[in-house]
Amino acid sequence: MRPNVLIVVVDSLRADRVWGGARTCQTPNLDDFRRSATAFTRAYSVASTTTPCTTSILTGTYPFVHGVHSLAGRRLGSELPTLPELFKASGFHTWAEMTGPLEAVTGLDRGFDEYRCREYTQWLDTQFGDELVARLRADGNRPWFGYLHLWEVHYPRRVTGRYHRSSYGRTLYDRSVSSLDEQLGRVLDAVDDDTFVLFTADHGEYLAQSRKNELVTRLKGPTAWLKRHVPGVKKLKRRVMPLVFRGMRGGTPTDTEGYRAWLGHGFHVYESLVHVPLLVRGPSRFPAGSEVSSMVSHVDLFPTLASALELGNGGPSHRGGLDLTRVLEQGDGAARSAIYLQASGARRMNRPEQWLAGIRTERHKYVRGMFNDALPEELYDLESDPGERENVAGKLPDVAADLRGRLDELMQSEATSEPAEDTAYTPEEQALLEQRLQDLGYLD
Question: Out of 38, 175, 387, 439, which residue is the most buried by the measure of CB atoms under 10 Å away?
Answer without folding.
Answer: 175
